[in-house]
Amino acid sequence: MKQTIIDAIDIRNLLEFHYDGHYRLVEPYTFGVSTKGNDTLSAYQVGGTSDKGNVPDWKLFTVSKIIALKKSDETFLGTRKGYTKGDSRMTKIYKEL
To answer: How many domains, in total, are found in the chain?
Structure first.
């Protein structure tokens, strides 16, 4: 799973997965370890649904809760407003744009 996320960030592929009972389609930006010690993905959700109903929007996903992760053939360009390199919510960063 880790390598899929890293590869998607490298080549800017969208990721598809299920999380908390919802289908998600996201642009992955930062993958690392949260301040709580969990592998975490910071991404911009562009499709699917969410408990909060905020789509599109920035989301933080605990990797261990991601189900059926796959890399989409769809890519994204540039960065979204609100993206900051060196995400302060993470103590260690494996990969970021």
So the answer is: 1
